[in-house]
Amino acid sequence: MKVKAFTFNPFMENTYLVYDETKEAVLIDPGCYDKGEQDELISFIEEHALEVKFILNTHGHIDHVLGNFFAKSRFGAPLWIGDKDAETLKSVEVYAPNYGFQNYQTTEVDKLLKDDEIIFFGNSMLKIVFVPGHAPGHIAFYNEDEKILIGGDVLFEGSIGRTDLPGGDYDTLINSIHTAFFKFDDDMVVYPGHGGTTTIGAEKLSNPFCKIK
């Protein structure tokens, strides 16, 4: 599998395309809001002749879902989110104008995903792990063989997701990191919702919030 990262919107959110040699792809956390960002995403998809099979949200915070409506309309793919975070997504339409996103458009979720569920596309698969703490229904997508973990706002390079938003809880987040993420091999690559990539081993060793070594 290949992972292409885009950094979108004023929150500097990471949007990911994961695809393989079949050209089938999943689009994770589309944060593209303005036309320039939308065109950047379209250009890459068309240049590589990709077919977006699913649109996936790790969680429903505004910066990760600004492009949901656009992506679903443009690519004709269903939108999936964790079964415990649908309300988080629904609330975005209420507060989006307060953040200056007057043109935010809500869209219907097509499927609610559960812990340990597997998503198949092309010759590839991503498995779901439930990792609450930053958002009550936060999930992540991973493939152990490929060493890919699309982690959303759980674990960052040298930091962790904030826990002061509605439904957030510090102890819950640290427990998610220790019990879910740190079970992976040290060379598992973490593709976070903000900032650059890191590895599980690096965060076990040096992350001031959750290191265990």
How does this model look, in words?
The chain has seven helices and 14 strands. The protein has helices at 35-47, 62-65, 68-75, 86-90, 92-95, 170-179, 200-206; strands spanning 2-8, 13-19, 24-28, 51-57, 79-82, 111-113, 118-121, 124-130, 139-143, 148-152, 155-156, 159-160, 189-192, 198-199. The chain has a single domain, classed as Metallo-beta-lactamase, Chain A. The longest helix has 13 residues, at 35-47. Strand 11 and strand 12 (159-160) form a beta hairpin. The model has no long low-confidence stretch (mean pLDDT 98). The strands form three sheets. It has a six-stranded mixed beta sheet. Strands 7-8-9-10-13-14 form a six-stranded mixed beta sheet. It has 213 residues and is α/β, with parallel strands linked by helices. It is globular, with a radius of gyration of 16 Å.
**Uncertain residue ranges:** none
- Biggest pleated sheet: 6 strands, mixed
User: Strand arrangement, largest sheet?
Assistant: 1-2-3-4-5-6
Outline, from the CA principal axes?
globular
Radius of gyration: 16 Å
Quaternary assembly: single chain
Note the gap between the termini. Answer: 30 Å
What is the number of independent domains?
1
Q: Would you identify the CATH architecture?
A: 4-Layer Sandwich
CATH homologous superfamily designation: Ribonuclease Z/Hydroxyacylglutathione hydrolase-like
Number of beta-strand segments: 14
| SSE-based structural type | alpha/beta
CATH topology: Metallo-beta-lactamase, Chain A
Strand content: 25-35%
CATH class: Alpha Beta
Average pLDDT over all residues: 98
Q: Determine the number of helices (DSSP H or I, runs of at least 4 residues).
A: 7
